[in-house]
Amino acid sequence: MGPDFDRRVVIWDETSRDYLVFVKEVAALRGRADGARSRDEAFDNHMALGRALYEHHLFRDALRSFRRACELHPTDVRAHFRAGNTLYALSRHAEAKEEFLLALEAAEAGGAQSADILPQIHVNLGIAMEGEGMILGACEHYREAAILCPTHFRALKLLGSALFGVGEYRAAVKALEEAVFLRPDYADAHCDLGSALHAMGEDERAIQEFQKAIDLKPGHVDALYNLGGLFMDAGRFARASEMYTRVLAVRPNNWRAQLNKAVALLGAGETEEAKKALKEAFKMTQRVEVYDAIAHLKTLQKKKKLPKGNGAEGEMAFLIVEPSKFKRVGRKTTLRQDLATALDIRAFQRVTRWSRCDVDLLEKEMNETDVPISYSGGGVAEKSIRKAALEVILRKLLRFLKPETFQGAVKAINEKVLSVLDATGSGRIDLGMFFAVLAPICSGLLEKRKRAVFDALLWRSNSDGGTQIRRSDAIAYIKLLRAVYIPSHGVSDMLELHGESDPSMVSYAEFLEMFNDSDWGFGILGTLVKLEAGDRIRHGQHTCSICRYPIIGSRFKETKYRFSLCNRCYSEGKVPSDCKQEEYRFKEYGSESEAMKDKCLCFNLHSKSSQGDP
């Protein structure tokens, strides 16, 4: 039996006569159980009482019975297993995990007589770990359950869902296909298979799987919602709106479905209906992003309708200009290509919440983590650990995240970082390189971040307290760093260098020169720090001439036509279609005070010129 059931806890009025009678009767039964003639009989009595209470969803009382059974027979698999299920039902996931680990230990020690229950312990342990947000660890246990029992369709479904959750879509599809082969009427497995196929771009197959889930269970909310998302991505807005309407028929308070319905209606040209749906979504949740969407829709409606161009009707048409036509006024104005890369890294920081992890915590974790040095096939020293063990370290560093948010962070890190660090698919990660790759995007002073990078590379391969690292390690690190964060650079160059053994050493000062190089190092870090500092900068009433949103962060003003762009539109090379010219010259303003200072400077220069000053 797994712990993913309808967890309705019976709530008693503890002042009522019925509750007092119930407590008295249960106490009497426990007393009779403890008064049994032998320890084995007492154990059986407490287990039977616990199961009866559990089946009636009286979980707190059931837990007392299972805990007493654990005291009577500390190495009994069944008692720990049942206690784990009950703790999960009470949403005490960390305690449930500990009980399942004890059950696993007892089952492995029990040999052949515990073989039947072993796959289910792995499944339930995985479910408890997912409850804590530990999805990579859960994958290992689901995989182990499927190995022990190849026909365990539920283990395969959970494995596929977890793999999808960390962005490993191909492996997810394989596990989910096996699950639906073993159990064709498994609606949840069809739904998750549809999601994995959609993530891989196989939309026609995905639609079929979502439809199978809906046919098996007409009110399958996840299948309806995900099918709506697929139709949205495909531009089939009317069909998307229909799916979200069906979700709301089952779950009237689903604000996300209501918001997505509004977006779908807007895409279908139903502006008035979209506005009504947005207002309903805002009533449900009061979230600021819904309020911003309503404000944006109102802004678009106020604008005069322009001829259709690259933009939709009601929005200003725009052109996308090649990078060479974007010129800078002053060295402080950020290059368009650099800004695009830095914005992608900033988005990664936001998804993972890594910019809330202080670099001092990373240094502390590095100093406190004891991992033995091992040698790869190329003879390179490293401290490597399995992905599930790395996830435990991540949980400590991101302890402030809720489980579901942490899962999203792990997915992003797995897709962007671990996929590069484990390019061979071994399942092991060079921990020193991992710390060094993430150190630059932590919070903290810029110099501290760079120092943490060097310290991680020292920690990775140094056991004698040296102060220098191998030049080959430094070069390999920078190539890997660029492969992770700068999309135009692959991992192939880094892999080519991996086996080299340059005997020369570099100091921290020499490493900094390599790191700061704008062409071959990670000079983009300065632009990223500027973005971090500008998150809360607003520019009065200035809105972007393309997207019409208020400008937050840097404002890029074109000096001839005097239109303004936000960070994103500038990085994408968008300009208004009625401002066509051979080149565009932009000046960057970090705040409104800088723009005012610039105006004052221009005024003073003109005044001096009128007086004949040079």
Automatic annotation (TrEMBL):
Segments annotated as TPR repeats: 43-76, 153-186, 187-220, 221-254
One term under GO cellular component: plasma membrane
Iron-sulfur listed as a keyword: no
SMART domains: TPR
Keywords in alphabetical order: TPR repeat
Keyword field contains Nucleotidyltransferase: no
InterPro entries xref list: EF-hand-dom_pair, TPR-like_helical_dom_sf, TPR_rpt
Full protein name: Putative TPR repeat-containing protein
Species per Swiss-Prot/TrEMBL record: Cocos nucifera (Coconut palm)
